[in-house]
Amino acid sequence: MNSKIARKMGVVATVAILFLSTVSFKSDFFEIAKQIEIFTTLFKELNMNYVDETNPAELMDTAINAMLEDLDPYTHYWNEQEVQAARINNAGEYTGIGATVGIRENKIIIVEPYKDYPADKAGLKAGDEIIKIGNIKVADYAEDAGELLKGAPNSKVELTYNRQGQTKTTSLTRGAIEIKAVPFYKLLEGNTGYIVLSQFNRNASGETLKALKELKEQGAEKIILDLRGNPGGLLSEAINVVNIFVPEGELITSTKSAVEKYNQTFFTTRKAIDSEIPLAVLINGRSASASEIVAGSLQDLDRAVVIGARSFGKGLVQRPKDLTYGTQLKVTISRYYTPSGRCIQALDYSHRDEEGNAIRFTTEDYNEFQTRNGRKVYDGGGISPDIKMSTSEYSSITNAILQQNAIFNYATEYYYSHDLKDFKNFKFTDKDYTDFQNYLSSMDFDYKTFTEKQLEELKKAAEFEGLESDISQHFSQIEKDIQNLKEEALEEKKSELVSLLSDEIIKRYFYKEGLYEYYVQRNPEIQKAREVLNDPVQYTEILR
């Protein structure tokens, strides 16, 4: 084992020195070299002398990930498989079973089968838990079992899965899967075109342009661009999408960094396809990165009315840096700024609270900027819409429910207990909502508010000072009041929860395509966008 370790240490030291030699010389070179030498000698002695057999690769992975974890959640070390997965995601196509899967507690859960792709044809449904891939049990597989679902085109794979307490098997043939950046577009009443842009892969601007042209040929005189839930992607594609609606030579975004070469400005480079057509952009708390560049630049240039809820607030730029053996470092190199000068980053990872969480910028920290027409806009926390919609917001209780997969799991139960033939007449009723509340109680759903976390700290301080017995009664009353408020929150946030529940349920029966058809008829944000676009006076007043 020692000779292998020695070879690994040589590689590690070489990689580290090559990597660090490419960074800015803002750090003292001697200090870097010193720390590398300390680490390599420690790593060598640990592996040669530890009482039990060690796994050098696993130790190194742990060391790398622990180091990067102290920075921000977007700086990652990617192994060969992860590098390939990123390329597939940006390319917009891959070979697999045709489904979104989630890894939860060493379980593979089907999150969404794509219509008419292998998983769908084999009968797999959202909520199915895959327990065996071929002869390999998922629970016994130490690495990412999701990788076993991928394979060569036309290769077969047998899956064993659990559904509602029953074990089933199915066989499917892997195929080429196309990930559409624009999965849906349609001409609505009133000559309004509706375009869903779900991600910024290499096809994003091309598919958006195609959709716009077809809608205009059908008579579209106004456009709704839906960026809700769009996590971002390629910066170049974000600029190209803006360029469809904005003339050549306009500043779209700039990046600022401690490294001079990463300070850049990005302008539109082509003639716009239509720089006059009235435009509404929909965003929510899951619209991030490239989505925020599009929404923010169109807002700063007074080119579109932005509707929904404050976006995610990811204003950090990453760039992949090739390492050895096909691996990469995806490293944060700079921050994005909108044309008015706003940085949309919501969390400050250079400052953390006592629990190690990044500090969120508060409204008191926001700085005021102006759009081209002089409208006030602010930095510090994503893009704030011109028209805010409660149904687009994600409150703390909603986020907690989402994190515990309660909406997803409830939709699974709903699907197997309700027969829904037509989404046009679907409505999530008050009785259904009461049933959902009972479901939350049955799964012992609970979450800690920020106030509760602060109260725990206060209790510790009171105990330290010997005051706990004197004020314990007050603590009990506060805890009781908080619990009552949490229960009331389920009613106060009913509209946003019903919206999410409806979306998940519709998708179970009618796929993503059916959900979009449901959206254009029922969705409050789309209805508001149509109202604004159909009222030229209101549209103009908002932008001026």
Automatic annotation (TrEMBL):
CDD domains from the UniProt entry: cpPDZ_CPP-like (cd06782), Peptidase_S41_CPP (cd07560)
Q: Which InterPro entries match?
A: ClpP/crotonase-like_dom_sf (IPR029045), PDZ (IPR001478), PDZ_sf (IPR036034), Peptidase_S41A (IPR004447), Tail-specific_protease (IPR005151)
The record's annotation in Gene3D superfamilies points to: 2-enoyl-CoA Hydratase, Chain A, domain 1 (3.90.226.10), 2.30.42.10, 3.30.750.44
Keywords, A to Z? Answer: Hydrolase, Protease, Serine protease
Q: Name the species this protein comes from.
A: Salinimicrobium gaetbulicola
Q: Name one Pfam family in it.
A: Peptidase_S41
Domain of life, per lineage: Bacteria
**PDZ domain spans which residues?**
82-165
Name of the protein in its database record: S41 family peptidase
Q: Which residues cross the membrane?
A: none
Q: Which SMART domains does the UniProt entry name for this protein? A: PDZ, TSPc
Family that this chain belongs to? Belongs to the peptidase S41A family.
User: Which stretches are annotated as coiled coil?
Assistant: none
